[in-house]
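Slide 14.
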Amino acid sequence: MLKKKIVVISGAGISAESGLSTFRDAGGLWEKHDINEVASIEGWKKNPEKVLEFYNLRRKQAAEAKPNKAHLALAKLEKLYEEVVVITQNVDDLHERGGSGNVIHLHGELCKARSERDELLITDIGDSSIKLGDKAEDGCQLRPHIVWFGELVPMMEKAATEVENADILIIVGTSLMVYPAAGLVNLSPLNIPKYIIDPADLGFLKNEDWIHYKENAGTGVVKLVQKLTR
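Slide 15: predicted structure.
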């Protein structure tokens, strides 16, 4: 067992290879829906039924998706390294179903619901739908356990601490252009190995000490994990 800590930051690109629509890419979910209507507290107050319908569908789609090669490969790191932490911007549970045991969800989790009043009253719902009238323990309406635009990211502090203590940093499926998650990479210790897996040309890496696997998540992660577990 190698006494090193690997921290992985993942984004929509890794889930896309399991068939889940990304939000920001061409043809993604935000082209088909108004963000303010389905991913903001204002949208929730205006039309909660529409918001519930949107996430009920996302939940069913996520439940039907299967972990791909990238998810499975990342889980293999836990067999050789003392600690592996996955910080994900994704709201599906594909990392967990792929075998990863320590996952931090920055933007919430589709398979959970919470009270619209008390964000600490969280319940597992699996792939079940949430309907108007479904109540939390405090008697308030259940809402998706999702961090909407404009809301605080409660797991950010914990994620920041993990990155600050990383011995190896891996970025996969995210362009590092969306904040506050993108700011996490700036917290990593100097001179540690840093890998990014993305098929695009990433111009901002030119002056940075990154090792770039210019491939899709499934191919690139498998190659990197093979390198790290030799």
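Speaker note: The chain has a mean pLDDT of 91.
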